[in-house]
Design goal:
This protein has three domains: 70 residues, Multidrug-efflux Transporter Regulator, Chain: A, Domain 2 (Orthogonal Bundle), CATH 1.10.1660; 32 residues; 134 residues, Regulatory factor, effector binding domain (Multidrug-efflux Transporter 1 Regulator Bmrr, Chain A). The N and C termini lie far apart (76 Å). The mean pLDDT is 91. Strand 6 and strand 7 form a beta hairpin. It is elongated. The strands form two sheets. Strands 4-9-11-10-6-7-5-8 form an eight-stranded antiparallel sheet, covered by helices on one side. A three-stranded antiparallel sheet has the order 1-3-2. By secondary structure, it is α+β, with helices and mostly antiparallel strands.
Length: 259
């Protein structure tokens, strides 16, 4: 009974390609036990375990060129450090994937709310938001690419965040939400009158501000905050021709609109 297997059988057993096995041989990290009279590469148990070791190191993102050093000179402590380092990298990747999952949920939820609002004013309850000042523009100053570049460092994941625009003392200030460090401005929890809108020009945004103020006065809402324009640039993935915004103002407590 034959004790050894061919390269194609080894490939099937270990779920790799014959090409990959030949590549490992070319790099000097896996050789056949012997070559038979028909020039078939033959492998035994030792080579199978050696290949499993190689595949494990590759799974840990060890370059092929470094594997020979690992297999010939690494101590148990070296492997322990290697695994701990790999574990940290995996945990970081999982954390990043969770953040990505949360962001995708956010975009889907925001788009759903946008499509069902029908350009109407509504009321919702919002939690306290801690804002960090990014930079300020004079009221007659246009936001440009140069502004963004010169105000580095920008907020983390700049266009995945809601950017808050508030007018104050003849300036338009850009804020982003923060969960760490001291806040430069706090939006208190409570009822907010709001509406989604899209725009391409500053004049359109100014018009929306005026309309909100008029609507609040007309319906006798007591405004308790400045008017906030929230840019949701990530929603432009659904329509790249316009930016999506939400205009908000805190009002005296009323029942949340759930329609």
């Amino acid at each position: 009974m034959k004790k050894h297997i061919t390269i194609s059988q080894l490939a099937q057993l270990m779920n790799v390609s014959v090409h990959q096995l030949r590549y490992f041989e070319e790099k000097g990290i896996l050789y056949p036990l012997y070559t038979d009279e028909n020039q078939y590469r033959m492998y035994g148990l030792h080579e199978i375990y050696q290949l499993s070791h190689i595949l494990m190191l590759r799974k840990l993102n060890i370059p092929v060129g470094q594997i020979e050093e690992c297999m010939t000179s690494y101590t148990a402590d070296d492997y322990n450090q290697l695994l701990e380092h790999s574990l940290q990298k995996v945990q970081d990747e999982i954390a990043n994937l969770k953040l990505l999952e949360q962001f995708i949920h956010k975009v889907l939820k925001e788009h759903h709310n946008l499509t069902r609002q029908n350009n109407e004013y509504r009321i919702k309850l919002l939690d306290t938001r801690h804002l960090k000042l990014w930079f300020a523009l004079e009221s007659d100053q246009e936001l440009t690419a140069r502004n963004l570049f010169e105000q580095r460092p920008s907020p983390p994941q700049l266009f995945e965040n809601d950017l808050h625009y508030l007018s104050d003392s003849g300036q338009v200030k850009l804020y982003y939400e923060t969960t760490s460090g001291a806040a430069d401005y706090i939006l208190e929890e409570g009822s907010y009158l709001y509406k989604h809108f899209s725009a391409t020009e500053d004049a359109e945004i100014e018009h929306q501000v005026q309309q909100l103020e008029h609507y609040a006065t007309q319906h006798q809402y007591e405004c308790l905050s400045k008017v906030i324009v929230v840019e949701k640039s990530y929603l432009s993935i659904f329509d790249s021709n316009e930016l999506q915004y939400e205009i908000q103002v805190k009002i005296s407590d009323v029942q949340e609109d759930v329609t």
